[in-house]
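Q: Predict the assembly, please.
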Amino acid sequence: MAVSGNELGLVKVGLLGCGTVGSGVVQILRDRAELIARRTGCDIRVRKIAVRDLADPRYVEVPDEMVTTRVEDVLGDPELQVVVELIGGIEPARSFVMDAISRGKHVVTANKALMSTYGGEILEAAEQAGMDVLYEASVGGAIPIMHPLKEGLAGNSISRILGVINGTTNYILTRMAEEDMAFRAALSEAQRLGYAEANPENDVEGRDAAAKIAIMASAAFNSRVHLEDVYTEGISRVTPADIAYARELGYAIKLLAIASDDESGISVRVHPTMIPLKHALASVNDVFNAIFVEADAAGDLMFYGRGAGSLPAASAVVGDVIAIARNLRAGGREVGCTCFATKRIKSMNETVCRYYVLLDVPDRPGVLAQIASVFGNNQVSIKSVIQHGGGTEARIMLVTHRVTEESMMAAIHSLMTLPVISSIANVIRVEDEGD
Amino acid sequence: MAVSGNELGLVKVGLLGCGTVGSGVVQILRDRAELIARRTGCDIRVRKIAVRDLADPRYVEVPDEMVTTRVEDVLGDPELQVVVELIGGIEPARSFVMDAISRGKHVVTANKALMSTYGGEILEAAEQAGMDVLYEASVGGAIPIMHPLKEGLAGNSISRILGVINGTTNYILTRMAEEDMAFRAALSEAQRLGYAEANPENDVEGRDAAAKIAIMASAAFNSRVHLEDVYTEGISRVTPADIAYARELGYAIKLLAIASDDESGISVRVHPTMIPLKHALASVNDVFNAIFVEADAAGDLMFYGRGAGSLPAASAVVGDVIAIARNLRAGGREVGCTCFATKRIKSMNETVCRYYVLLDVPDRPGVLAQIASVFGNNQVSIKSVIQHGGGTEARIMLVTHRVTEESMMAAIHSLMTLPVISSIANVIRVEDEGD
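A: Predicted assembly structure:
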């Protein structure tokens, strides 16, 4: 037996924010207190919760005297050893976190906006103060990924991370694929079910995924990647037709977050992507998230689970609180900032991949020859062409060989000037092992 | 930046065994030394390697003076802080590990036979001596699973683990499914490719998977499960016809390791299993492994990767060595034995699931009525029946509702005495959400 009762280390926790995730944290730490104590030797108690308004609805019952609207009641309480920041956004979260660190408190946060923007400064301040800042819940909800990236896989050189890391968009794309539904209709359904917010822009335009991939890329490649470094493109232009054509070609369309590292630098981007139906990420559906890691010793790994929700996110927060509590009891520290290098971040123009292009054209002799010559003039080589329909409403669907974004965009630009093309219906990047 | 050079903690490691995994460990710790040091602050050096025979082939070059045939040169070296045991099997591995612990060394092992048989005693001895014993590589190769089970998910109550955790059998079943190949032919191919051993019994009969699920169940359910507690059935009776029929019914056949925990006790078993094609485990193919965890707060999680091979297993060993090295540098301890409870282990007879039964029968009126009445008499309710063929060579394929193994086996026993049945071609358990 690992622990007898009287050796238990009592660890006192303060919360900033008590919305969906905060309520889950309170619930787990209360309902699972004995289990956690017996498993880890730590008696963890939430002692103080700062909220914006006492009248705001809470999803968990807490004694009145535990709740306060004064943040200082948490940050200024010398008894509290761990502060859990769950208010989200940059300010005032950033000031509160820095303040907590400077007052000798360890911090756990689920704040992806904050960690993808000021992660370097925060971890540096924590290092100076001898504090731990953990942020497992900021990426992939319940999925344990930051600990593997920073510690379990520390013997590996990681070349690439591919992630389906936004549940809202994955739900929408799954519905579009399964029900042949238009984007707007699928979005409305997601909103009705609570999977998308009233203002869905942050999810739908890829910004949420961009923050998460920035955080993972920083840990995997040991060089700081900021949210603003991530090229980001949302899913609002994807149509059910694209999804059907993709399937015909052997691909699924996912909003993929992609980070890769090679001699020429780091590439980080979020965009709708065709991936082979046989790839493990292709069958990650509905609100599920998955992170695919390509490591030199471990090989390919995938971590799959619920990327959002009260209890899944709270599970990750509690895991971090437990890690800190164990250190408080037994000594020891978590791995802090590992961005010891300063690698170049490539521009999107340098990115190399394959492209799917869907063109509306009248079915006239010579059209394809004109299109092919535009691609050829821009050094874009075509791998396959399929024509659908005919007459005045033909569609040409083509997939290129690997080419730089720069050449591809030049080709697209030239295509726009070609009178025989009615419209460029869509351009979607293709990630596979092909050339 | 986390670490400056002169703060580096030097950690000296000894290896017992230098076969495929050991060679990988030496290679990673040598080639990635600087990366590991900068990421974790630890300078980790392999100083001594004990092998059985100096003439045995090694897959990595090491200085002659580092290699010895005397185990005492490792265990008795006061400079070595960590001993990595990679000789496998119970003895002498067990004595060496216990000896290392008693001499104040931390231990990392990839030995599933040992940890699934003497894990309790070893972790207890380590606890008494204040040492860490880590064994991430004993389950799922490169896949980080023990740390999540013991720490990251410590706030969760885990109800079930489903694992595709033997690469050899998964490769064989994948080939059988994709190429309509017989078991023997697929096994021969696996042997030719080095995915199966000359004597494949340990893999093919499910014993390897049984050891791994025993180790995971112990950590997940906080009650010691031994290898001998696991009901084990191999894949040698699965035919390409079963796989084709399963697909017709919407299932894939996998060698599944299943551990579940409820009020009535723990159930742990390894057997060929039909799982819905839509289940994330159904598309885990070839030599890949995956572990599916059902947790109350986190929800469903899956960990996927390479379950075997020199570098993948070595990646996990190195992750464990790094965890210990970090503790040696900064203080702190890993979570040890978490089996604080003593839960009842259910007999296979109590297990409840659905069953697929394939019967060879002559196509005569009244046959189905006789079969149905045998099931009925044994309280087994039939969910669906499909007949293939006709004349004297008909096959009846049926799937039952959920029923205990005991009732099912009684029904099978009665079926055997039924003159109208030519043969019971196969009985395969079905795991799904149905009733």
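Chain A has a mean pLDDT of 94. The CA atoms of residues 252 and 282 of chain A lie 6 Å apart.
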